[in-house]
Design goal:
GO terms for molecular function: kinase activity. The chain has 10 helices and 23 strands.
């Protein structure tokens, strides 16, 4: 089946109906199609009769279909016969790294989190001897389902005829370049890539991320240099594979949904030249205007008479109320010996002051009194920085009960002075299974902190409210069980908000 003979409406395998031609390149055409059996969109590649690598592409696609990591684009079908050849894969919706960088570099933690997810996914592909070899910003996607997707594993390299003797090193360098792009908004190559400008150079060498963008943490700069900037390593060891990249980024915060203002225009996908994402196609979100309330029909003019009578009564009542109020005030002013009992009733300002107020902790640290005393304290401030995209997380454990190594770990907040705690709102990971206790006291010692609230099977935004008055300088969010996270077990806190009715 020639490319020119394949038109919108063509059905493949009696179920995949081609709808929109997304792109064409060297005899390969990418389509948006509909799986008529499952009623879902899919991406379909078709190939011209003279396409030179049809057999290799179909073979690679069939191998990729056995990959189970959800962060890799799923291949549904691949066929080759005398009439036609095609590859059917998942239709991915979301924003590519190119789109995310349209307004400038990402926050370092978010860039590192995206690449860490991609590195773990590619490490799984490498275990099956499947490689990418052509990682570009368009291949890394933050989906509308708030997950990471890596497009094009095995299939794209075969389609473009790319080969290498060192696939692990090549993919490690590709991940390093993605991290460089995320941290700086530049591409470490000789040319622009996907609209990103080429990275600046000094003495013929690419600048490191910290030389390009202020605020890049030193350890992320080092990971990038070790992955893709050999001229700047200065004795630092090379990261030779995606698994080594994943290990180097194992402790970074994983990406959370990007806060969006509403109403908004979300990215709506079509497909790309890889496996099914075209950010160039957008659909505008239409916000319907509220319809005016229907007007009641006039009832022969009778309604207007009634309205006038009611209006007259309202005016009379208002006049009477004003008169009574004036008389009361006059008596009050004229009788100084009368007790001013009105002052005993709470005013609006008094009641407002009694309402719980948000109090920002002065310090935060990871708390592991049953182990080495510390639990990722270098990340603790990220849980009180007001940014929902950053986080603190525990060490990785082998089971939900902390590997049976200890009774608990947590995040300890120093409020700066003793105060009453109304409640603590902690945004946890979405995965259920955490058991969290709220402990409060005037000493940071575990034995001095009193448990005032407990939440089992906690997930997402969790409010811990003391069951009785709780006062102290130190607030501890204490995990006794932690949920699963990418094959391991972590306790995660994206943000903590402490409320207090006032100082104790």
């Amino acid at each position: 089946m020639s490319t020119s003979a394949v038109e919108p409406g063509t059905r493949l395998a009696e179920r995949f109906r081609l709808e929109d031609r997304v792109s064409e390149s060297d005899g390969a055409t990418l389509w948006k199609a509909i799986d008529e059996i499952l009623a879902r969109p899919v991406a379909v590649h078709t190939f011209a009769p003279d396409f030179p690598r049809v057999h290799e592409v179909v073979t690679a696609a069939r191998a990729a279909s056995r990959l189970t990591d959800p962060r890799l684009t799923q291949v549904f079908d691949a066929a080759e016969d005398d009439k036609h050849a095609y590859v059917v894969s998942e239709w991915v919706t979301g924003e590519s790294l190119t789109d995310l960088l349209a307004s400038g570099p990402l926050e370092p933690e978010r860039a590192a989190g995206l690449v860490a997810e991609a590195a773990e996914a590619l490490a799984h592909a490498h275990e099956a001897q499947l490689y990418h070899l052509c990682l570009r910003p368009a291949h890394l996607v933050w989906t509308t389902g708030n997950t990471v997707k890596v497009l094009g594993v095995a299939v794209d390299a075969t389609m473009y005829g790319l080969t290498t003797d060192q696939p692990a090193l090549d993919d490690a360098e590709g991940l390093g370049r993605l991290l460089y792009a995320g941290l700086t908004g530049h591409w470490p190559g000789d040319e622009e890539e996907g609209g990103l400008p080429a990275a600046p150079m000094i003495d013929g060498h690419f600048c490191t991320p910290r030389q390009v963008t202020a605020g890049v943490p030193g350890y992320l700069d080092a990971v990038t240099v070790r992955a893709c900037l050999p001229e700047s390593r200065k004795g630092q060891g090379t990261l030779n594979s995606p698994s080594e990249i994943a290990e180097a980024l194992a402790d970074v915060a994983r990406p959370m949904p990007i806060p969006m203002a509403y109403p908004s225009t979300p990215a709506v996908a079509s497909a790309s030249h890889t496996e099914g994402l075209d950010i160039a196609h957008r659909q505008q979100l239409t916000v319907s205007r509220p319809q005016p309330a229907p007007r009641r029909p006039a009832n022969g003019g009778g309604g207007s008479v009634v309205n006038r009578v009611l209006m007259t009564l309202v005016v009379l009542l208002v006049i009477a109320a004003v008169g009574v109020g004036a008389w009361t005030i006059g008596r009050s002013l004229g009788s100084p010996t009368t007790p001013q009992t009105a002052e005993t009733s709470p005013s609006s300002s008094t009641s407002a002051s009694a309402e719980a107020q948000t109090v920002k902790p002065s310090k935060a640290k990871g708390f592991d009194p049953l182990g080495d005393g510390d639990e990722k304290s270098e990340m603790a401030e990220l849980a009180i920085d007001g940014k929902p995209s950053t986080l603190w997380k525990t060490e990785a454990y082998t089971s939900a009960d902390l590997g049976r190594l200890k009774d608990g770990v947590g995040l300890l907040l120093d409020m700066g002075k003793s105060m009453q705690i109304s409640d603590v709102v902690a945004t946890l990971a979405d995965a259920p299974g955490a058991t969290v206790e709220l402990k409060v006291g005037d000493s940071p010692d575990l034995g001095s902190l009193k448990t005032v609230a407990t939440e089992k099977n906690a997930a997402g935004k969790t409010t811990l409210t003391p069951d009785q008055a709780a006062t102290g300088q130190y607030v501890l969010i204490w995990f006794t069980r932690v949920p699963t996270d990418a094959g391991k077990f972590h306790g995660t806190i994206y943000e903590v908000v402490v409320h207090s009715p006032g100082s104790a």
